[in-house]
Amino acid sequence: MASPAAPIGVFDSGLGGLTVARAIRTLLPRESIAYFGDTARLPYGTKSPATVHRFTRQCLRFLMGVRPKLLVVACNTASALALAQLRNDFEVPVIGVLEPGAVAAVEVARQAARSGGSTPGRAQRIGLIATEATIGSNAYPAAIRALDPALQVIGRACPLLVPMIEEGREESDLIVGLVLREYLQPFLEMEISALILGCTHYPIFASAVQETLGEEVTLIDSARQTALVVRDQLATMHALSQSPHDGRLTCYVTDQGQRFERLASRFLGEAVGQPVWVTPEMLETVE
Amino acid sequence: MASPAAPIGVFDSGLGGLTVARAIRTLLPRESIAYFGDTARLPYGTKSPATVHRFTRQCLRFLMGVRPKLLVVACNTASALALAQLRNDFEVPVIGVLEPGAVAAVEVARQAARSGGSTPGRAQRIGLIATEATIGSNAYPAAIRALDPALQVIGRACPLLVPMIEEGREESDLIVGLVLREYLQPFLEMEISALILGCTHYPIFASAVQETLGEEVTLIDSARQTALVVRDQLATMHALSQSPHDGRLTCYVTDQGQRFERLASRFLGEAVGQPVWVTPEMLETVE
To answer: By residue range, what is the domain housing residue B166?
Structure first.
């Protein structure tokens, strides 16, 4: 049986999953988190399903070393390409970010349909922005249509958003505005009720996306939805932390250097201590 | 002694090094090339020196399996961060792309100084655009000042160029134009005689860069310079191919999938056959 004192393992290819860690810390401040970012091999969003599955499994195997009560795959690409296999690979529950986002988007679309709304068809359409690999996997449309076959999903890969965010560009930047307008154009031409921010980096640009699309479109940020699923899962397992103290956050990364610390606070919303360095070779030996 | 019939091993973190393979094939069509792209772990340009050295060494160890007469590190980041160590790691000569580019830039600056030129100081300044890691390494300024201590090098990291090129954007694209103008602004304010394209992807945007900077700036594309160094090195070793037939090009990649084939022809200037897939785990066992 899972110990309530055990940490939650959170995995991402890099830094973006810290937005999920942040949502968990806000909702469940007593939980300790072991965060793993595969910064030596990121990004996953341009890579094949086989490689994404293999890398993610190696990282989760390493995370199992802290004896977590639960694993969170806080990476949309890994959730889209490999979640089913990963659930077979491990004994503890594995929660992805894709399904919570899909559930929330379907709920928004249904509300829009109930309220009537301005444009016919808008309520039936859900937009999705994500990495090339996530779009190519078709996993979001599959998850959404499993919940409601009448819904349409329009997806668009946005390869420049992650490098723009990691470069430190702000939403007010001229180039950010132009790139967003280009990527979001299909969602203006074919109106949507909800837009899924299908990459954990994207919430950083949420205000600019909202401004481009207008108030009629509800943005779906999977981080908070995922935190709610984590809470429900832990409650079901009777494994919510009983500690009177705030939980710890320990970060593990595969690349050396200051880049993680420099960028991490933008995603976590608080300072991050020096991460623990794990070489990719060490991951291989864990297999 | 090296066999003239042996192939040349060319390494890059991904696809960009195919511009170097192309230059070698143009200059030395009789040579066979074994090209290795570490597509599962790219890009290297945001990673630490330790990780870049480790990954590159693993890939070169694998390439040694084809018994190459020469290794070319056709990756600016790896050349900047790890070339000296790599030369100790292997028995065959290892040629990087950094030094040939630095030599060519110094030659341009000297010619500009001799010819007088329009603006005082222009001849003394060399510009450099490259990845974050290459800029951070200070390797180009060190190589250039070792050749001529009177020269100044102004470097600028350009993190969006590689993803824009891999997204398939053309030079005529509005966003490409704006990003280039932003990145190249320092070289308009402080005039330069030469600009080093310090990443093997960048030649794809050479015309737009030239147009932004004007004809007084000479662009340095290391690919051709490196091919000349390869020729000289092989001649010195008496190892130039004596074959009456054109050489073969075999590609090895660490990621599965169609992305390599889809993008490779843009860099190589000819169709690329299906690459051989090597898992990163296989690289570990080579160590």
So the answer is: 99-222
